[in-house]
C-alpha cells in the first residue's frame, strides 16, 4: 500500500458543494442571552460551538452556519442583510433602529422591562425629564421613546453599569434594563414614568424569510412547546369526558382511547407545565384516576 503523503486522501465528510444556500444565523457570544440561546439551538438539534472562543461554526448536516456575535451588534448584521436570522433582545433590536430587521418570534427567555429610574422623588412623569441628563446604553431606544412623548433631554451614552451614573454626577436619571430590580435598589434608584418596553429574547430576520428559515422556526417552536407543556394521561368514567375536557382542553383536542372496561376511557392531553398540579387536582376531583404526568422532549405541532 502506498504511503504517499503529498496527496492527501479525500475527506470522508460529505459537505454540501456550496455554503451559499446555508442559513446564516447570528448567536449571542456573551452576556445574559448567550447560554440559553445556545442551549435552545442545541435542543433544536443543531451543532453549535464547542470552544467558547469560536466565532464561526458550520453545521453541514442541518445546512446552517452560526456566527457568534455581540448581542448588541446582531440586529446590525441581520438588518444589513449580512446574516439571515439572529437571536437577540427586543430592546437591542429596537435600539439598533434597523428597518431591515424585524421580530419573527418571541423565544420566552431573558424577560425584562426597560425603565427610567432616579433617586426617589426627583421625577415622576416622563415629561419631567425635559432638559435632564439621562444615562443609558440604549440611546436609540430611549431617543425614540422621548421623541414619541415630545420630550427633549440630553442622552449620556454609557456602555454598562449605568446605575452608577447618577451618584457619580454624570446624569440626573437613567434608562436601563430591569429584571429583579436588585441593581436599582442597591444604587438607591426608583423606577418612575411609563414602562418604556417589555423585552425578551427574540428571533429576528429580514422582512422576507430566507430559505431554511421555516425549519429553524418550527424546531425552535418545538423546543418551546417541550419546555412549556407536559403530557398528562389519566383514566376516567366515559360519561365524564366533557367535564374533563373543560378542565384540560389540550392544544387541539385530547386523545380518547377505549379501556377493557367499556365504562372507562383513557385520556391523553398536553397541559401547560405551570399549573399542572391544579389541573391534576381538578381532574381527580371529578373522578379521574391513575393520573400520570410525563415530560415532552421535543415536538412539532
Ligand atoms: N438582568 C437581566 N435579566 C434579563 N435579561 C437581561 C438582563 N440584563 C440584560 N438582559 C437582556 O440581555 C440583553 C443584553 O444582553 P448583553 O449581552 O448585551 O448585555 P449583558 O447581559 O448586560 O452583558 P454585558 O456583560 O456585555 O453587559 C438585552 O436584551 C437585555 O434585555
Ligand atoms: O434588575 P436586575 O435583576 O438587577 O438586573 C438588571 C441589571 O442587569 C443588567 O446589568 P449587567 O449585570 O449585565 O451589567 P451592565 O449594566 O454592566 O450591563 C442590566 O443592565 C441591569 O443593570
Ligand atoms: Mg449588561
Tell me what the structure shows.
This protein has 301 residues and is an alpha/beta fold. The chain folds into 3 domains: 23-108 and 201-211, 3-Layer(aba) Sandwich (D-Maltodextrin-Binding Protein, domain 2), CATH 3.40.190; 112-198, Periplasmic binding protein-like II (D-Maltodextrin-Binding Protein, domain 2), CATH 3.40.190; 229-295, Alpha-Beta Plaits. It is built from 8 helices and 15 strands. The strands form 3 sheets. It has a 6-stranded mixed beta sheet with strand order 2-3-1-4-11-5, sandwiched between helices. The protein has a 5-stranded mixed beta sheet with strand order 8-7-9-6-10. Helix 3 (90-96) crosses helix 4 (139-148). It starts with 22 loop residues before the first strand and ends in a 6-residue tail after the last strand. Bound molecules: adenosine-5'-triphosphate, 1-O-pyrophosphono-5-O-phosphono-alpha-D-ribofuranose and magnesium ion (MG). Residues 160-161, 163, 176-183 line the site of 1-O-pyrophosphono-5-O-phosphono-alpha-D-ribofuranose (PRP). 1-O-pyrophosphono-5-O-phosphono-alpha-D-ribofuranose (PRP) is lined by residues 160-161, 163, 176-183. InterPro entries: ATP-PRT_HisG_long, ATP_PRibTrfase_cat, ATP_PRibTrfase_CS, ATP_PRibTrfase_HisG, HisG_C, N-reg_PII-like_a/b, N-reg_PII/ATP_PRibTrfase_C. It catalyses: 1-(5-phospho-beta-D-ribosyl)-ATP + diphosphate = 5-phospho-alpha-D-ribose 1-diphosphate + ATP. This is ATP phosphoribosyltransferase.
Amino acid at each position: 500500500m502506498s504511503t504517499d503523503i503529498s496527496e492527501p486522501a479525500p475527506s470522508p465528510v460529505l459537505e454540501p458543494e456550496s455554503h451559499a444556500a446555508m442559513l446564516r444565523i447570528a448567536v449571542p457570544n456573551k452576556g445574559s442571552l448567550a447560554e440559553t440561546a445556545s442551549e435552545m439551538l442545541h435542543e433544536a438539534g443543531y451543532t453549535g460551538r464547542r470552544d467558547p472562543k469560536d466565532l464561526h461554526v458550520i453545521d453541514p448536516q442541518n445546512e446552517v452556519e452560526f456566527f457568534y456575535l455581540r448581542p448588541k451588534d446582531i440586529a446590525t448584521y441581520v438588518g444589513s442583510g449580512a446574516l439571515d436570522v439572529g437571536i437577540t433582545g427586543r430592546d437591542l433590536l429596537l435600539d439598533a433602529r434597523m428597518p431591515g430587521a424585524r421580530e419573527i418570534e418571541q423565544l420566552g427567555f431573558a424577560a425584562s422591562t426597560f425603565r427610567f429610574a432616579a433617586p426617589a422623588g426627583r421625577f415622576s412623569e416622563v415629561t419631567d425629564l425635559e432638559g435632564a441628563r439621562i444615562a443609558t446604553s440604549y440611546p436609540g431606544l430611549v431617543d425614540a421613546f422621548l421623541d414619541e412623548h415630545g420630550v427633549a433631554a440630553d442622552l449620556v451614552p454609557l456602555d454598562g453599569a449605568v446605575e452608577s451614573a447618577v451618584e457619580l454626577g454624570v446624569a440626573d436619571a437613567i434608562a436601563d434594563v430591569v429584571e429583579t430590580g436588585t441593581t436599582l435598589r442597591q444604587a438607591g434608584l426608583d423606577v418612575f414614568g411609563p414602562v418604556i418596553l417589555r423585552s425578551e429574547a427574540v428571533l429576528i430576520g429580514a422582512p422576507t424569510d430566507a430559505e431554511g428559515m421555516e425549519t429553524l422556526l418550527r424546531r425552535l417552536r418545538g423546543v418551546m412547546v417541550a419546555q412549556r407543556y407536559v403530557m398528562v394521561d389519566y383514566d376516567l368514567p366515559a360519561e365524564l369526558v366533557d367535564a374533563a375536557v373543560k378542565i384540560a382542553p389540550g392544544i387541539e383536542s385530547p386523545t380518547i382511547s377505549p379501556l377493557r372496561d367499556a365504562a372507562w376511557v383513557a385520556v391523553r392531553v398536553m397541559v401547560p407545565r405551570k399549573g399542572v398540579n391544579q389541573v391534576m387536582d381538578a381532574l381527580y376531583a371529578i373522578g379521574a384516576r391513575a393520573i400520570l404526568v410525563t415530560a415532552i422532549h421535543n415536538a412539532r405541532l
